[in-house]
């Protein structure tokens, strides 16, 4: 039972990036899923969440309109589409099967 996040990297401000979170085993059903991020020297913060069906999504006000979370249940994969990234988006991004199954993080670095 593992979550594997991928898709991070070094990008420039204004670019787009898509993170993926793949689950091994039957780890998606029937849970909500989410993304958190942790910037250097800061606490981990909520970035996005999606309901089991994918019909409901949740974002902090600061990320609405730029980030889009989605999931493909048959593929046991979740995504985070990040558009118009900013240097302040630099962080390690973690996927989570709500409430408490965490994957390892993927580093996103945005240069100005």
Distinctive features:
0% helix, 112 residues, mainly beta, 4-stranded antiparallel β-sheet, 7-stranded mixed β-sheet
What does this structure look like?
The chain is mainly β and 112 residues long. It contains no helices and 11 strands. The strands form 2 sheets. Strands 2, 4, 5, 6, 9, 10 and 11 form a 7-stranded mixed β-sheet that branches. Strands 1-3-8-7 form a 4-stranded antiparallel β-sheet, with no helix packed on it. A hairpin with a 3-residue loop joins β9 and β10. The protein is globular. The mean pLDDT is 95.
Fold topology:
Layout (H helix, E strand, L loop, with lengths): L2 E4 L2 E4 L4 E7 L9 E6 L6 E6 L6 E2 L8 E6 L4 E6 L8 E7 L3 E2 L3 E6 L1
Parallel strand pairs: 2-11
Antiparallel strand pairs: 1-3, 3-8, 4-5, 4-9, 5-6, 7-8, 9-10, 9-11
Which stretches of 5+ consecutive residues score pLDDT under 50? Answer: none
Subunit arrangement of the protein: single chain
Provide the structure class.
mainly beta
Distance between the termini: 38 Å
**Strand fraction band?**
over 45%
Strand element count: 11
Net shape: globular
Helicity, as a percent range: under 10%
Please work out how many helical segments DSSP would assign: 0
Q: Mind describing the biggest β-sheet?
A: 7 strands, mixed
Order of helices and strands: EEEEEEEEEEE
How big is the Rg? 13 Å
Taking all residues together, what is the mean pLDDT? 95
């Amino acid at each position: 039972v593992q979550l594997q996040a991928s898709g991070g990297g070094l990008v420039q401000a204004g670019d787009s990036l898509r993170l993926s979170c793949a689950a091994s085993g039957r780890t998606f059903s029937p849970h909500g899923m989410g993304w958190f991020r942790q910037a250097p020297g800061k606490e981990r913060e909520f970035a996005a969440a999606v309901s089991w069906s994918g019909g409901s999504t949740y974002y902090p006000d600061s990320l609405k309109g730029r980030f889009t979370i989605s999931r493909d249940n048959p593929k046991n994969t979740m995504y985070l589409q990040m558009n118009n990234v900013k240097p302040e988006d630099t962080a390690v991004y973690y996927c989570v099967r709500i409430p408490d199954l965490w994957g390892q993080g993927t580093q996103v670095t945005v240069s100005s």
